[in-house]
Design a protein that fits this description.
- This protein is an all-alpha fold.
- The chain has one domain.
- It has 10 helices and no strands.
- Helix 1 runs antiparallel to helix 8, helix 3 runs parallel beside helix 10 and helix 4 packs across helix 9.
């Protein structure tokens, strides 16, 4: 019982590390076009890297290509439906509203992604306590960068600073839920987990294509590319 509570606390702390990224973002007094492009590109690179290097390979390993493809398509369609029922970014009246919507989209994608991350913490802890803690530390560092991805557009969207920290931190709570699932991993169908991994990948690729990359290149194309490459490399190192 004590061991279970300990890993759940560790999973929670790893998830809440996203809040550190928010604190860094709101501390910036001026966000120039170059910083904006690098930040959005960085977010795009991380999300592409997470999807292609982590989520999709893990899904394929646990199931078949058909399950992975189905999950990916459903995840992308899920975000498409949300996009349809929300005012489209290009039709919104002010630029700040565009950035705010982008921030909310990224927060949703990160929330979906944090569940399989939490599963990784819980599952590896069942195999080895030390390995589980190391996984949690790695994911925690990774979540700081994800917090920046969520908070930066919200800052540009002139969202209240307290709300930015709250939203960004709340995205990490899904890591706790995933950790709990990981502890009972043997009772969960691998096909369900594989489908959800691909679902999260589809949602994140949709966000990247629809929001992040176009907006990052709009302000400063060269710095956007630097951000994308940097984000992808970081995802590779942490995958």
């Amino acid at each position: 019982m004590v061991i279970t509570i300990s890993i759940l606390v560790i999973g929670l702390l790893a998830g809440l590390a996203t809040g550190l990224g928010a604190l860094i973002s709101i501390s910036l007094k001026v966000i120039s076009d170059k910083i904006l492009s690098v930040s959005l590109g960085f977010a795009a690179g991380i999300m592409i890297g997470i999807s292609t290097l982590g989520l999709i390979p893990a899904s394929l390993e646990m199931s078949s290509a058909y399950i992975t493809i189905a999950g990916f398509i459903v995840g992308a369609l899920f975000l498409l439906l949300i996009d349809v029922f929300m005012p489209h970014v290009h039709k919104m009246e002010t630029e700040s509203q565009q950035y705010a919507k982008m921030g909310y989209f990224i927060a949703l994608g990160i929330t979906l992604h944090n569940i399989p991350e939490g599963i990784a913490i819980g599952a590896t802890y069942e195999v080895s306590h030390i390995l589980g803690i190391m996984t949690a530390v790695t994911i925690g560092l990774h979540n700081v960068a994800e917090g920046l991805c969520v908070a930066m557009p919200l800052c540009l969207g002139k969202v209240n600073k307290f709300r930015i920290v709250l939203i960004t931190t709340m995205t990490g709570l899904s890591t706790l839920f995933g950790t709990w699932l990981g502890l009972i991993f043997g009772l969960i169908s691998p096909l369900f987990i594989a489908f959800f991994l691909a679902f999260a990948a589809g949602a994140m690729i949709y966000i990247t294509s629809d929001e992040l990359i176009p907006k990052s290149h709009k302000t400063h194309s060269e710095f956007a590319n630097i951000g994308i490459v940097s984000g992808f490399i970081l995802a590779l190192l942490l995958s």
